[in-house]
Amino acid sequence: MPKLPGKSYDEMKALIASNHGIGYVFSWELLIAICWEESFFNNQEQEGAGTAWGFGQVEPSEFYKFETEQAKKHGYYVANLPKRAKIGNKTKLLGSLTDNQSVQVVSAALRHNYYARKQDKRDALYVYGGVYYKGPSPLTVAERIAIINGWLDCEKHLQFFHQGHDPNEIIKGLHMAKNFKDSEATFRPILFPFGQDDLIKWLKEEIAKLKAGKQYLKTGNTGDDVTALQNLLNHKALPGVQSLAADGIFGPKTYAGVTEYQRRSQLVADGIVGPNTKQKLAT
């Protein structure tokens, strides 16, 4: 088990939002819980003699399932996975997973277990967590079930507090998946590299850039005020929504982000950022 978190909470959340796909059965909060318990958000090979890989510690022997026609049909095909080789009785990954692939294989493993079996969430988690594994294991069945229950408890806690960004509540949720009380003081600044004062300062700066720019922003505009708009839309986005590229170009994706935010905020959803939309983004 790694000694330190490999990603911040927001970095992990963004990776999941970009690579998990439809989360109506397996939420992004559940993937957060699994990736925390399995690896402390580290994308690496299992330590010791194991062969599992990535944030969710998925066995390379399972990767072929994510390259099939069934995987394409159900939307969990993972492209360009590294080659694997049988070495003794183990399957080793010949290479490494990118961060994106590492999230994709967690998502694919869960969805494969779901579609290939009973289409039952807990059953799919039991397969993922090795509850049905009959070979030698350092964990008992009861211990494996307890780990899965911890994932689900963490998921529920994060879902309850998903409208805010309270590090203390997020920490409580992560503890449910994998306790790290002895290391919390060390882990906290890695999970949350920006304190509340820094966050407030950053928000004020982005709001000031937006207000200081063009009176109305619309498709085709470019500049720092568009970048500020994109950053603020990302900050206000609902969980699971893919982040906009903060490139300063008001294109189709930024337009869609603006109209979605306007509808959610009971504003006229015209895709034009005028005084009313700016005022709402500033609150």
Write up this protein:
With 283 residues, the protein is mostly helical. 51% of the residues lie in helices and 3% in strands. The protein has twelve helices and two strands, in the order αααββααααααααα. It has helices spanning 9-19, 28-39, 69-74, 99-116, 121-128, 141-160, 167-177, 184-191, 196-212, 224-236, 252-264, 275-281; strands at 84-87, 90-93. α1 crosses α2, α1 crosses α4 (99-116) and α2 (28-39) crosses α7.
Quickly describe the structure.
Helices cover 51% and strands 3% of the residues.
What class, by secondary structure content?
A: mainly alpha
* Elements, N to C (H/E): HHHEEHHHHHHHHH
Strand content: under 5%
Shape: globular
Note the topology.
Layout: H1 9-19, H2 28-39, H3 69-74, E1 84-87, E2 90-93, H4 99-116, H5 121-128, H6 141-160, H7 167-177, H8 184-191, H9 196-212, H10 224-236, H11 252-264, H12 275-281
Antiparallel strand pairs: 1-2
Helix pairs in contact: 1-2, 1-4, 2-6, 2-7, 4-5, 6-7, 9-10
Properties at a glance:
12 helices, 51% helix, mainly alpha, 283 residues, two-stranded antiparallel ribbon
